Amino acid sequence: MNQLSTRERTIVLLGGIFLVILFALKGLLFPAMAEKNRLEQRLIASEKTLQEMAVMQASYKGMNLDASREMNTGIRREKGFTLFSFLDQLARKSGVKENIVHMKPDSRRQDKGDYTISMVKVKLESLYLKEFMDFLYFIETAGKGVHISGVSLTKTGKDNRLLNAVVDAWVLLAEDGE
């Protein structure tokens, strides 16, 4: 550097400063700006998704409320109606009462609303298909808003002519008991 004139030193110094600034821009500033733009785009997409989810949540809540009303609309039950006693009566009526091994009641209160879901699991052993179908028919056609959510069947007995069955039934009950 001692052999360079002042003018040449100034040019080399300005060139070095230019290169340092260029590398700083290329290595730090431009990637930071690109990352900022990418994050802004992700934020916009996430906000749009959040808005869509809010609309879907409101729609779901509306549908859930409508479904609850629909299940209970127009269904008149006697005061003190219980799913357990109702299924017991229908078992007696259809002739499967003596085939009941156990009836397991359960209930769950809705988080938001004035309804309780009452459930009963009925286990039946060694019954004929006709008796079982009569029992299901009586449940479905009673007009009490009782629904069957699951049925499990296995063959049993000599020549597999009998059935073992588990029936899961439920009903939506208003808190006032109707």
List the SSEs and their pairings:
Elements: H1 6-72, H2 83-94, E1 100-109, E2 115-127, H3 129-141, E3 147-156, E4 162-174
Antiparallel strand pairs: 1-2, 2-4, 3-4
Helix pairs in contact: 2-3
Describe the structure in your own words.
The protein has helices at about 5-70, 85-95, 130-140; strands at about 100-110, 115-125, 145-155, 160-175. It is rod-shaped and about 115 Å long. Helix 2 (about 85-95) crosses helix 3 (about 130-140). About 50% of the residues lie in helices and about 25% in strands. Strand 3 (about 145-155) and strand 4 form a beta hairpin. The model has no long low-confidence stretch (mean pLDDT about 85). It has three helices and four strands. The protein is α+β, with helices and mostly antiparallel strands and about 180 residues long. It has a four-stranded antiparallel beta sheet.
The helix/strand series, from N terminus to C terminus, equals HHEEHEE
Radius of gyration: 36 Å
Query: What structural class do the secondary elements suggest?
Result: alpha+beta
Q: Name the average pLDDT.
A: 84
Distance between the termini: 100 Å
How is this structure best summarized?
The protein is α+β, with helices and mostly antiparallel strands and 178 residues long.
Keywords:
single chain, 178 residues, alpha+beta, 3 helices
